[in-house]
């Protein structure tokens, strides 16, 4: 009789684990059941701001694999099935079918928890009003479209992080009047040092966004349960549509209730094989904590890149293979119109919090040879450990062609290189792509000299 793997969650981590387990086992050996509470699987949440902005025109194009495609590959995908309790002693999952209310109990031999994360929603008065939402699912994007069709013209985005910038850009492109409210004194304050954020704020204001920094939201004004304003300590901001982008928290309620270990960062604790502290229970994706490769500390960094890799590692190991997840650096990239923004590793602030003796060195450069048409200015900031010269982090803000250089620096971080070693690397050069001294080499050389 086949063993059974039950997967809770049908997005990046869950479906990567299920698909990998199917590749490495036959249906006669392992039955794979996926419980997904929504009506979709494997959707690209990172594409939602571009769906709202009209760059992506068809919601279905954000679906990497449909439920039927997964079923054709040998997975028993059960939509609108919500897991409500895990009994780790009996090895069962209890849940309910959302369309009928029917309660079911499903035994498992192995269990993968891929419950993802939820957006942060402070207990502000009026936050449940119509027109106040987050952009986490395709249904959220559909709701935005409905509000626009109903005449929404004034949008407020709460939070100037990744999602905030991308959503603000999209709504601006749709012709709305957009206000961005951020409690910190700079946009992208959670992921960049303050000295790298000034150009982003300038670009947002130059595009016509009413950017309000150092401003705290206190609630929402409503008329007939529909939002009409965002209330702040500095006064009310009129709004027909509000998108909240304040970051996420891991969905760990199921694991907590089952006494599955939760780590100090708030995510489910797993080892590098994606095993929890409970026999036959695995976890992956935005609901877990990972080890930071530089500090060795547990962190929760919700990114689809991590979720897919972790799911594949879990699926390999569940079927008897040997795979490990190597940790995270927090490498990420976004843009606001023509400004590309990227980071990896530690900021100066994070390095200090980790007890590392570090300096930050910034370098002005150009994306191409300065004489070549289309060359754009860019700033590269490196965070470097004193004494050893080890690279600890990097941030890039600049024009088209700047951002993806972060991958070179992430590779250097992954391999624990010093800035002197980075400065000596053999990188490609031709005038349409780079100055003769690539900005990465220029920044590393300047940092090495500063030491």
Task: Describe this structure as you would to a colleague.
The N and C termini lie far apart (64 Å). The protein has three domains: 170 residues, FAD/NAD(P)-binding domain (3-Layer(bba) Sandwich); 126 residues, FAD/NAD(P)-binding domain (3-Layer(bba) Sandwich), CATH 3.50.50; 119 residues, FAD/NAD(P)-binding domain (3-Layer(bba) Sandwich), CATH 3.50.50. The protein contains twelve helices and 25 strands. Helix 5 links the parallel strand 10 and strand 11. A five-stranded parallel sheet has the order 3-2-1-7-18. The chain is an alpha/beta fold. The model has no long low-confidence stretch (mean pLDDT 96).
Instruction: Look up the CATH topology of the largest domain.
Output: FAD/NAD(P)-binding domain
**Judging by the overall fold, what is the CATH architecture of the largest domain?**
3-Layer(bba) Sandwich
Using only C-alpha atoms, the radius of gyration works out to: 23 Å
> What proportion of the residues form beta strands (DSSP E)?
25-35%
Shape: globular
In the CATH hierarchy, what is the class of the largest domain? Answer: Alpha Beta
From the helix content, strand content and strand pairing, which structural class follows? alpha/beta
What's the average pLDDT?
96
Number of domains: 3
In CATH, the homologous superfamily of the largest domain goes by the name FAD/NAD(P)-binding domain
Count of DSSP H/I helices = 12
What gap, in angstroms, lies between the N and C termini?
A: 64 Å
Number of strands: 25
What level of helicity do the residues show?
A: 10-25%
Q: Unreliable runs, pLDDT <50, ≥5 residues?
A: none
Strand order of the largest sheet: 3-2-1-7-18
């Amino acid at each position: 009789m086949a063993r059974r793997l039950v997967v809770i969650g049908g997005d990046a981590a869950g479906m990567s684990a299920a698909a990998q387990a199917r590749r490495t086992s036959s249906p006669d050996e392992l039955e794979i059941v996926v419980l997904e509470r929504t009506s979709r699987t494997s959707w690209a949440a990172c594409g939602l701001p571009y769906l709202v902005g009209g760059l992506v025109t068809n919601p279905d194009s954000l679906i990497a694999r449909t439920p039927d495609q997964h079923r054709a590959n040998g997975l028993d995908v059960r939509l609108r099935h919500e897991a409500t309790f895990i009994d780790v002693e009996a090895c069962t999952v209890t849940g309910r079918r959302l369309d009928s209310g029917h309660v079911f109990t499903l035994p498992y031999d192995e269990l993968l928890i891929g419950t993802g994360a939820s957006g942060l929603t402070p207990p502000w008065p009026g936050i449940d009003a119509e027109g106040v939402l987050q952009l986490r699912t395709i249904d959220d994007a559909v709701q935005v479209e409905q509000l626009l069709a109903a005449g929404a013209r004034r949008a407020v985005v709460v939070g100037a992080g990744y999602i905030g910038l991308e959503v603000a850009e999209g709504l601006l492109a749709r012709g709305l009047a957009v206000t961005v409210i951020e409690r910190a004194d700079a946009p992208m304050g959670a992921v960049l040092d303050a000295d790298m954020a000034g150009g982003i704020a300038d670009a947002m204001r130059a595009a016509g966004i009413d950017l309000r920094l150092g401003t705290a939201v206190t609630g929402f004004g409503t008329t007939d349960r529909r939002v009409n304003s965002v209330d702040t300590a500095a006064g009310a901001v009129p709004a027909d549509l509000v998108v909240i982008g304040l970051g996420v928290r891991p969905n760990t309620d199921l694991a907590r209730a089952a006494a599955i270990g939760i780590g100090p960062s708030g995510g489910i604790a797993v080892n590098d094989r994606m095993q929890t502290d409970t026999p036959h229970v695995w976890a992956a994706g935005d609901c877990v904590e990972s080890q930071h490769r530089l500090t060795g500390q547990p962190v929760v960094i919700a990114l689809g890149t991590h979720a897919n890799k972790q799911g594949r590692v879990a699926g390999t190991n569940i079927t008897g293979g040997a795979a490990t997840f190597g940790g995270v650096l927090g490498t990420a990239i976004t843009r606001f119109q023509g400004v590309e923004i990227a980071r990896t590793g530690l900021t100066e602030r994070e390095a200090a919090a980790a007890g590392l003796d570090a300096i930050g060195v910034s370098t002005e450069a150009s994306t191409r040879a300065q004489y070549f048409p289309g060359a754009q200015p860019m700033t590269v900031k490196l965070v470097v450990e004193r004494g050893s010269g080890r690279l600890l982090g990097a941030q890039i803000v600049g024009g088209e062609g700047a951002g993806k250089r972060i991958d070179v620096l992430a590779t250097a971080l992954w391999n624990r290189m010093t800035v002197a070693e980075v400065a000596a690397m053999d990188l490609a050069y031709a005038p349409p792509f780079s100055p003769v001294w690539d900005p990465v080499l220029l920044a590393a050389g300047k940092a090495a000299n500063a030491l």
